[in-house]
Amino acid sequence: MSPRIIIDMNKCRNCNSCTVACSYQHHPGNNGMLQLLEQAAFRFTCRKCEEAPCISVCPVDALWKDSEGVVKRAVNLCVACKSCVVACPFGTMMNNFFEVRKSVCDYCGMNGKPVKLLCVDTCPEQALSVAEADEDPAADLHRLNDKVLVREIIWEKLKHE
């Protein structure tokens, strides 16, 4: 089992803006965690509204749904007006996602060996960790990609409780 970044979305929501430090080398001021948080929220927190108000309110058509119904954002079109944040009736869209420039997470070269990550060390809410873990939906741990797991209660699960 390889080490993975674990993002705890419940703890993450306690921040008003993501202030973690990032060691991405290719441009200063990058916060790769923003990219991962956006992907995690769209995939796991979003209620995937049939007539998504976030998409219909976007003045530049920067939002759309993929074939799985997951909202995606075209960073090159997005003007960070945050109309979608206001329009989302469930609070899925978080203010701290949207910047005009794209942030990129390169996973600090994680390739199967334990690594110390600057974002984990600098997260004020301790919403980030690194652990050898696998997806476990029963424990609300979901796979975002090969290197990231997200701890989030899927809204569909809440309907049945």
What does this protein structure show overall?
This protein is of the alpha+beta class. The chain has a single domain, classed as Alpha-Beta Plaits. The protein is 24% helix and 16% strand. The chain contains six helices and six strands, in the order E-H-H-H-E-E-H-H-E-E-E-H. It has a four-stranded mixed sheet. The protein is globular.
Mean pLDDT: 86
Structural class: alpha+beta
Q: Please tally the β strands and state the result.
A: 6
Major sheet strand order:
4-1-6-5
- Low-confidence segments, given as residue ranges, are none
Write down the CATH class.
Alpha Beta
In quaternary terms, these chains amount to single chain
- Give helix and strand order, one letter per element, not per position: EHHHEEHHEEEH
Radius of gyration: 16 Å
Distance between the termini: 32 Å
Might you state the CATH topology name? Alpha-Beta Plaits
Main sheet attributes: strand count, strand direction, barrel closure: 4 strands, mixed
Number of domains: 1
The rough form would be described as globular
CATH level-two architecture: 2-Layer Sandwich
- Count of helices? 6
Strand % is 15-25%
Helix content: 10-25%
